[in-house]
Amino acid sequence: MEWWVSMPKIELHAHLNGSIRNSTLLYALIHTPLFWELARVLGEKGVIVFSDVEHVIKKNDRSLGEVFKLFDLIHILTTDHKTVTRITKEVVEDFASENVVYLELRTTPKKNDSIGMSKQSYMEAVIEGLRAVTAVDIDFVPHKFNTQDSLNTIAMNDACDGTRRKKTYVRLLLSIDRRETTEAAIETVKLALEMRGLGVVGIDLSGNPDVGEWNTFLPALKFAQEQGLYITLHCGEVPNRQEVQPMLDFLPQRIGHAIFFEEEEWRQLKTSKIPVEICLTSNIKTESISSIDIHHFVDLYNAKHPLVLCTDDAGVFSTSLSNEYKLASTAFGLGKREMFELARNGIEFIFAGDEVKQYLVGAFDSAAKKLN
Ligand code: 5GP
């Protein structure tokens, strides 16, 4: 097994629906009545050329604007309780299979009255997906909320067959979509607070960066901050002088992307030491950055700024966390040990307590002994 696959890794920026498997997306597509209706309207009399459909879904390079159109399509296909549960289970298993030992998964709770879905029932479907994971043991309930009833699987499986199984920590972030109103954003924060005992640890602000205004989300984000939820913001994905500085002034625990910063904003970022979630493939495929050679990873890495490599949307961008490590290693000339240290440094920026951090330090320490 290649070192970038076998080494332990920490994933802190992964959107649930963006991490969907192609096969699951295709399955959802052909099982959607709307799809067949569309085919009929297009004059294909219900006959679909599968490879054509596959091509559209697997299309590689899309601008940031096109990506958000694709998300609207994905959401039409995946927003029902059963599919949300299935995607959650698969996404967690996929990350675990490439030795992700700690995963923070984010998703936008969705409401759809026509199918009886509330933001809460959407999230319950996510939790059901976590409970359905069988390939590995997962730990998603923070220790202080752990009761007999919600005890995680690790102990049970160890007791069953006496062998140690792989364990992955999973924590959830609820995303506020930039299309949402202040009230809808506050509803998401309240839901996050109610679901703290089920692994929800924080709030993310995401969605099309050309839509919405910072002031719309600020009341909800302030409320979340006051209540002790962790916060990460998509920041500087497009040039927006009105936003980047207020976002940095807000002092979120992390930010994602940080691409279009002015000189003064870089300075502020570096002084603040706010960790940055770096998504190389996503930035290149959405053409937010024209070439990997000029990616700001290099400047931040050389400045020893806190960084963590992430996938963003492993399904949509056809990548994996292992692939991101391999890419960084090749593109920036970093060796196995430097990449290992980079991954290990991520422990500091996770939205979980000391107990989890200690476990992860142990996992990295034992993996370090095998690194040659
Ligand atoms: P979901 O929240 O539905 O599980 O995951 C997909 C959603 O995450 C998208 O609709 C979008 O709101 C958000 N998202 C995924 N990738 C990106 C990205 O690269 N930038 C931003 N700003 N939002 C994203």
Descriptive notes:
The chain is of the alpha/beta class and 372 residues long. It has a single domain (3-370), classed as Alpha-Beta Barrel (TIM Barrel). The protein contains 17 helices and 9 strands. β7 (254-257), α12 and β8 form a beta-alpha-beta unit. The longest helix has 17 residues, at 81-97. The two termini are 13 Å apart. Residues 153-162 have low confidence and may be disordered. The structure holds guanosine-5'-monophosphate. Guanosine-5'-monophosphate binds next to β4.
Q: In a nutshell, what does this entry contain?
A:
The chain is of the alpha/beta class and 372 residues long. The protein has helices at 3-6, 22-30, 33-41, 50-58, 64-78, 81-97, 119-132, 153-161, 182-194, 214-226, 241-249, 263-272, 280-285, 297-302, 321-332, 336-345, 354-370; strands at 9-15, 100-107, 137-139, 167-177, 200-206, 230-235, 254-257, 276-278, 307-309. The chain has one domain (3-370): TIM Barrel, CATH 3.20.20.140.
Radius of gyration: 20 Å
Helix content: 40-55%
Report on the biggest sheet. 9 strands, parallel
- The CATH topology is what? TIM Barrel
Estimate the mean pLDDT confidence: 90
Globally, the shape reads: globular
Q: What is the terminal-to-terminal distance? A: 13 Å
Q: So what's the CATH class?
A: Alpha Beta
Q: Are there runs of 5+ residues with pLDDT below 50, and where? A: 153-162
Tell me the number of strands.
9
Please write the string of helix (H) and strand (E) elements.
HEHHHHHEHEHEHEHEHEHEHHEHHH
What small molecules does this complex bind? Answer: guanosine-5'-monophosphate
Tally of discrete structural domains: 1
